[in-house]
Amino acid sequence: MKNLLIILICIGMLSMIACQNQTNNNHSEIPSSSQESSVLPESVSSMPQTDSGLSESSLSNSEKQEIGDKEISIPIKIIDSTAVPKVYDFGNPKKLLGTEKEIKMYSEWINSLDYENITDIYASTAYMMSGKTGTMSIEDTKTVMDTIKLVTEHLKPMTEEKAKNPYTGGGWTVIVNTNDTKVQFRFNGGWFIVTMDGQEYYWIFDVDKTPAQDLCKKISVLLDEEVRKIEGDTTPIIYKDSKISRLYAVDTNNCIMVEITEKPQIQTLVTEFNTVMDENKNLSGFGYLIFADNDKKEYIYLSEDDVNLNGSCEETLKSGKLHPSWLIHFNPKRVVDANGVKDKDKLDKLANFLKEEVTVSKEASVSKGSVNPNLSMGEFRLNMEFDSGVKYQILGTDNFDGTGTLSLYTSDLDTSVSYKLDNGVAQKITAFLKDFS
Asked: Any idea what the Cα angle at residue 397 is, between residues 391 and 400, rounded to 5°?
């Protein structure tokens, strides 16, 4: 009997130990994408954790919000990779096309990033000169970091097809050091790339033609402005004795334009414009539109012989937001009427909205005469008149699912161009015109 009692006690103790080990194992394991799919690397499971030691998935929404609201106290240091190569060194991780799974994992991490846990932030742009350094204000630094967080809400999975055509010709890099890790964010025009120190893979997300692309470009503007301060570059760019205010790459066949905002790129292009013949033959279908001071405007049409300018124009059109050419072309000062509205302030707001917010896909259809599209769903109409007597007729559809179409007719050419609107633009137009009166 005594021996039986001892045996029962031993069995009970072993059971308790086994249960305790199982409990500890359950708490120590953080689910990783490698456990769910063999495509994803095991290293993803080592995503940085919060100061409490808990995985991000264990944080409540209120705790995430509290972390995200903390103020930043470390300014961005503007410095290129040649000056501090160790800062930009992340080894040689492999490329991984981001899926919804990676977007979710990255979102959880970035949204829990504690600004007070940041030790250093570095940034550089594609066009900055080597050896130059500077420091952003805390206010602008917070804007950059907050905007990077906002980008996360609009990331799209990267497809194999899109990954075959990398973007070139601009962008920025921001590196954040924390007490736990080092992370690099990169934007190249259409991709958002995240690299974490010590990881086997870096993630590529698609931001082409999304609000994320616009947010990334806002970061570009801030960083480029800081770089110009550092380099002392405040002089205007001159073309034919006039100061350039804006420059657009033009696809003349599809009647679309993309604004070029990088000053070094503009300077390079303007230098090459001097080599373009005034009377080009064998036109390539590409060109540039220059806006200069005193309301000057000039088109530069390229021939097939203008190889460098053609290549640059084509790359810009691939990576930027596409605008209907005639909406960029018109002078807001010359609009005298729009749907019966003649108030100058309202007309200026309308012109600014059309030039900034109306974006389209590359495919366009050009035809003679006016076009009456199928307006079976929601529709919008806008009739504009200029002091020259030229009239624009804008007709479009809002399908109430984010999609829509737009047809623009101009009386001076008796020609219409029909476009497919970018996602969400039709809704913006409908809302704007509803309040426009």
From this structure: 150
